[in-house]
Write a sequence for this structure.
């Protein structure tokens, strides 16, 4: 595998987002339970996060559980939440060892008290870490996030703290869970589907997209290298015109 690092002459994404999809189908192909797929998916996530930190990705956002995933059978939701709790209760030393600053995207009220406490501890105890910012999206949906931001801003207007004219794109960004972070510039989705599924809509407004057929548990670290090379070769115009035209 070609090991990339930030000194490679490639344009690295500042903020990489990954939609880790396909755990269930992977397990089905192996005649196993969906739970087995989720367990394997967590292991894959751990190695991918570590790798991204090593090669110099500044911000990594991963989609672990969406606001829509509550629709799944209660046993599956319960298993995923159990897995999340198990992961978080062991992950702190790993986050610190890798120098990751951890940040959770999503509303906390639907999560168990135990998970909420583990999240608060992970965010608090990694606050001074200077390596990769790792955003873990759990109970996350972009529409939910933007709705919350609108309410927060409306409250400030109502209280007379700001005027309507002060509402701009920066203020909206500041009221999202990714406050202070660069916009997402590359999104990778595994698992064949070509859609966003309510992930980081505002933050990915001008992102590049890579859709892979690979099911998440089969993801290979070298796909990150391939994705960065592909990203680096894309001509990003942001509505302007190409410099060489
Ligand atoms: C992604 O894998 C993990 C979560 C959404 C929690 P899926 O569970 O969606 O797997 P598929 O898409 O059914 O194969
Ligand atoms: C997106 O996958 C959410 C996560 C990976 C956590 P889904 O499996 O929930 O997405 P859809 O249902 O195919 O859009
Ligand atoms: Mg899926």
């Amino acid at each position: 595998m070609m090991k990339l690092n930030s000194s490679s002459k490639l344009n690295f994404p500042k903020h990489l987002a990954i939609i880790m999809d396909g755990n269930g189908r992977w397990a089905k192909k192996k005649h196993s339970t969906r739970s087995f797929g989720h367990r394997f998916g967590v292991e894959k996530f751990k190695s991918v996060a570590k790798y991204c930190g090593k090669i110099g990705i500044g911000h990594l956002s991963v989609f672990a559980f969406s606001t829509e995933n509550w629709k799944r059978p209660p046993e599956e939701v319960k298993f995923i939440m159990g897995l999340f709790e198990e992961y978080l209760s062991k992950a702190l030393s790993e986050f610190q060892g890798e120098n990751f600053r951890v940040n959770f995207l999503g509303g906390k009220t639907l999560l168990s008290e135990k998970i909420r406490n583990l999240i608060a501890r992970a965010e608090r105890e990694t606050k001074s870490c200077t390596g990769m910012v790792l955003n873990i999206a759990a109970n996350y949906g972009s529409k939910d996030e933007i709705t919350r931001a609108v309410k927060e801003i409306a409250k400030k207007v109502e209280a007379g703290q700001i005027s309507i004219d002060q509402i701009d794109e920066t203020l909206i960004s500041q009221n999202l869970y990714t406050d202070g972070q660069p916009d997402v510039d590359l999104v990778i989705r595994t698992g064949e589907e070509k859609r966003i599924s309510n992930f980081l809509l505002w933050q990915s407004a001008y992102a590049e997209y890579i859709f892979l057929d690979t099911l998440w548990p089969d993801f290979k670290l070298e796909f990150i290298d391939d994705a960065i090379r592909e990203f680096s070769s894309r001509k990003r115009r942001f509505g302007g015109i190409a410099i060489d035209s």
In short: Helices lie at 23-29, 34-55, 74-98, 113-125, 142-158, 169-174, 222-233.
